[in-house]
Amino acid sequence: MSDVRIDMATREVEFVLTDGSELKGQVYVSMHSKSGAGIQRIDELLSVGDQFLPFRSSDGFLLLNRSRVMLARVSLEENTGELARMGEKYRVKMTTILGTTITAEIFVNLPKDYQRVKDYLNHPVKYFTCFTEEHVLYVNREFILLVED
User: Are 70 and 114 in the same domain?
Assistant: First the structure.
C-alpha cells in the first residue's frame, strides 16, 4: 500500500443548485492552483475532475453532482487574488434559469480588441467569475438566460 499523501485544504462555500436549493459547507481543494497562484479556486474544482465532489455540511458528508451547480459563492476574503480583477471592469445583471437575478462586477482581461462583455461571455470557460461587495461568485454559464450590461 502506498503512503502517498496529497495535501488538501478546505474552503467554505455556498452552492445554489439548478433546482434552487442551497447548500452551505466545505469542499476539499488542492493546495496548488492550476494558475500557480495559491490554493485551488472553486471554479477550478468545479470545472474538471470527478463528477461527484465530497461536500461537508452541518448535516454530514454528501457527494454533490458538480454538473448541477448553478452558482458557487465564497467570501471575498477567501479569494482576493489580484489576477481575477485585472482588465476592464463592467457591472452586469444576469438572469438565471430560475428567474433570479445576479448583479455583480466582472473584469474582462482579454486581448485589446476583445474587451467587451460579449467577448467575456463567449470566452470558453465553464464558470464566470463575478464580484459583489462581500462575495466572489462563480456562475455556471449553462444556467444563464440573459445578461444586461
Answer: no
Q: How far is 75 from 132, CA to CA, in rounded Å?
A: 10
For 77, the grid coordinates are 476574503
Q: Is-above-0.85 flag for pTM?
A: yes
Containing domain of residue 60, as a range?
8-74
What's the CA gap between 92 and 49, in Å, rounded? 30
As beta bridge partners, residue 138 has 72, 129
Residue pointed to by grid coordinates 461571455 = 121
Q: Count up the domains in the chain and report the number.
A: 2
Hunting for cell 489576477 — which residue is that?
83
Query: How does pLDDT run across 99-111, given as a tens digit for each residue?
Result: 999 999 999 887 7
